[in-house]
Amino acid sequence: MSSATPLAVDTCDDVLAALGQYNLTTPEGLALARAYLKSFPGARPRDLVYHLVEQHLLTRFQADTLLRGVASNLVLSCYSIVDVLGAGSMGKTYKATSSRDPGWFAVRTIPRRNVMNLQSIAEKVEALKQVRHPRVSAMVHVGAQGDRVYMVWPLIEGGERLDDLVRRQGKLSARQSAQVALQIASGLQAYHAAGLFHGLLQPTDILIGTDRRVRLLDFGVGFLLTCERGKSLLSTMTNGKAMNHGLECASPESISDPLDRTLLGDHYSLGCILYFCLTGRFPFPSTNPVKKMLGHQFEEPTPLGELAPETPPRLVTIVQRLMRKQPQERYDSIDEVIRELQVITSGGRGSQAPTPGPMSRVDVTSPESATDHDEAFEETSRGRRAPAKVTPKEEAAPPSLSSELRSMGLWLALVGIASGLASGVLVWLMKRG
Q1: Which is it for the CA torsion 84, 51, 98, 193, positive or negative?
Q2: What pLDDT, in 10s, does the model give residues 208-230?
């Protein structure tokens, strides 16, 4: 986390100065620290700091950072970092408070050297702030300080990530899977109506709350990978690492061109998530990233009839249409997806195939409108309560071989896995299917 030049914390006065300068504790906390020093005049800086930890006035993470002399790293604009939540392909994520807004926030940092165009995302973040949904944690701020760029989301706590839930209890029932997909689609609806997409949707971004309601995390992360001007915010290597991390549910077009992210790309990712819920595995489960990419672009996944034969034909058709290789062959809008999924969750005739036609807007954006579906999800999950706290936080024939090889070469360069692969290896892989 170090971005500032370390400053020695040699005395308890240095500790008190850092606590006050960076607002690391309350006025009451500072008073308690001074009282402690009066009672123990020979105390060392470490003694004072860990006394504050014992009194729950500092976290252990804050204490260790302060003692390293880099307390300035704990403050990013109005956000005060209190703990580390984890590290991923796009940087570390921290738990933070804000001096301007109540509640907890997730702050993700990226080295500034990896950021190519910070201003390009500012308008998108402002647009995200205008669209709110109770089940969606959308980016609320992006900024830079020192050698770090940071992004901020409201922190949603409690529950279990969808990938952990499926791995723990196995594949979900058809109705439960449709309910998860319906709630994801309802969260996407208002944003899609405003022309905003997630861009990197996958099971790790889906949180099943202790109330059994589905919530979407990291909305806006896709804008870090592309923008309307056709320029990525992130450097090539950072962009590639992020894309490799999201490969399980990546749309074919985003594999051919990592900057090609649209609303219909979210449709494909939703289809992959639904397939994952129904079968307990991803559509293309190979551990080889190249084979996985080729699968998304050119192959069909193992049929649902083989892995989940109890799946209603109507739901099978929904998954197949969401996962069409060509974007224009998927659903016209997320409203149409919602309409089809509602038939499944409401107990409609699952043997019927969906009938395409003109769609009126379906409103399922309010918590109340989804209550019946939440109860259905709860009914099928009874006795499988999630852990108390987990945070933060996925056809047409292929184009010509030469054009695909060029796009695959670009993609492999981005994800940082192609440095040792010659173009002949790709040709060999494609000939072998």
Answers
A1: positive
A2: 998 889 999 989 887 766 644 44
